[in-house]
Amino acid sequence: MIQVRNLIKEFEGRLVLDDITTSFKKGAVNMIIGKSGSGKTVFLKCLIGLIQPSSGEIRYEGRNITEMRAREVKRLRRDMGMLFQGSALFDSKTVLENVMFPLDMFSRKNQRERKKRAEFCLERVNLSHAADLYPSEISGGMMKRAAIARAIALNPRYLFCDEPNSGLDPKTSQLIDELISDITADFGITSIVVSHDMNSVMNIGDNIIFLNEGILEWQGSRDRIMDAKNEKLNEFVFASELFKKIKVADYIISESNASEQQDG
Fold it and tell me: How far apart are CA 244 and CA 259, in angstroms?
């Protein structure tokens, strides 16, 4: 489990994360949501040790990453898989070579074993047929799937995704959502996904953390989010026309049921 206690981050006197205390569920898809500028990406970078918080604790199975030496952080990162917003594949490497990269860097397996593991990961994301292609030769959705394959190559305990659906069409976004959810369940990974996409939240969010101007405003499951009483969360959730319609439909149904009960 990842536990965060009283996390604060300031940049030149500007408070970006304001006393956040929370935990991320093990073996679940944990989503960090909020408007642009709410502190989501800064929070993610603090979690993986790319940004040092001003104060507070981030504990991985009881170990505080903010107190670790560089060597200890590097060792912990071997348990982390990371999916960046732009996929971050190497243009000069094939899809298979991209997936093998972290194995070549950190694995003690021999060349044949590393290639076999990379091929398994590509098969898991339904991309075996693109192994010998270069990033410029595949679609954006395929690039995301290749990046996911690379992220799970070292069999991580934690998977971090920063806006994994950015720039994708709705159908491909749904496929990426389902892939993240399936991999999380199949391998027992603790996944943390930064997103502002409510469709993703409702599709795969097991545990949802809502940030607003650096403050943790609400946390709960997707089953509770539609009925949450937090005003700022409601403003975010029902900002899209689709979810406005869902809210209106729920209201009509509830009013109709109430009317039927009175008539009866």
Answer: 23
Give every residue of the chain whose pLDDT is below 70, as ranges.
Answer: 240-264
- In 3-state terms the chain splits into helix, strand, coil percentages (rounded to 5) of 45, 25, 30
- Cα separation, 194 vs 69, in Å, equals 26
Q: How is the beta sheet containing 215-220 ordered, strand by strand? A: 80-83, 158-162, 190-195, 29-33, 207-212, 215-220
Cα 100 to its chain centre, rounded Å, is: 22
Task: With H, G, I as helix, E, B as strand and everything else as coil, classify residue 110.
Answer: coil
Cα–Cα distance, 38 to 117 (Å, whole number) = 38
Q: Are strands 55-60 and 2-11 parallel, antiparallel or unpaired?
A: antiparallel
Q: Would you give the end-to-end CA distance of the chain in angstroms?
A: 50
> Whats the size of the chain, residue-wise?
264
Sequence-distant (6+) residues with CB within 8 A of 150 are 81, 89, 98, 99, 101, 102, 121
Per-residue model confidence (pLDDT) at position 249: 45
What residue ranges do the domains of the chain occupy?
2-79+156-263
In the numeric block, the tokens 């903010």 are attached to 66
- Give the Å distances, CA to CA, from 184 to 2, 53, 81, 143: 15, 27, 12, 19
Count of beta carbons in the 10 Å neighbourhood of residue 155: 13
Strand, coil or helix: 190: strand
Whole-number pLDDT of residue 257: 56
Fold held by 2-79+156-263 = Rossmann fold (3.40.50)
Per-residue pLDDT reduced to its tens digit, 8-21: 999 988 999 999 99
